[in-house]
User: Fold Expansin-like from Actinidia chinensis var. chinensis.
Amino acid sequence: MALFLCFLFSLIFSATACNRCVHHAKVAYTQQSALSNGACGYGSLALGFNGGYLAAAVSSIYKGGAGCGACFQIRCKDPTLCTKRGTKVIVTDLNQNNQTDFVLSSSALMAMANKGKGQDVSELGVVHVEYKRVPCQYRNQNLALRVEEMSQKPYYLAVKFLYQGGQTEIVGVDVAQVGSPNWSSMRRNYGAVWGTNQVPTGPLQFRMMVTSGYDGKTIWAQHVLPDDWKNGLIYDSGVQITDIAQEGCSLCDVSSWK
Assistant:
């Protein structure tokens, strides 16, 4: 009977996506500094993200860097130790140890705990949790681009995307001179950093291909870098990504966040 219900649900939902699924896994923890200097390339800027509640995620979540900046709500399964709400983390690194889905910053781990239970949670070492992806929200903050030090005008440009909102992933980036239809494709160097050796002259505009579950769309930032852009500076894109993503869940996954 259970197999039949699974098949029936698959027929009903095969062409759709459910709300962001609840997943069951394990997490470990480490120091914030280790995660800020992680594979996404945020560096010390990450310490200012989300109150320093950071996480390294396994490759299925990191997605070759596309998962950098994604936000997750995580809570441990023991109500005697942890709050019902849990803690919200942002992905800043790749977790190469497949024994846990996430490695949290120590502050994020402690934030899951009930009052007076932080030490008990940390002593577990590995914590059984449930988690779901949630929107990233940056109050009064647009998507921003930081020009990386490796850039060498006019031969090479590398930018890092910061403060990406919503539940989306940037999977493609193009750059062009403001007002020009001649776009140059950028490639993901690593993590949140994209680069190109075909650098247009003048002030620059960007367009980003953004996916949200099964859907994709283009975000156009019309005036981002001035003609005299400089390495190490952060520039406001003038836009923000706020899409709420969906995903295909396991056929019989009817778990909900309560």
Summary: The longest strand covers residues 215-225. Residues 1-19 have pLDDT under 50 and may be disordered. The first helix runs from residue 2 to 13.
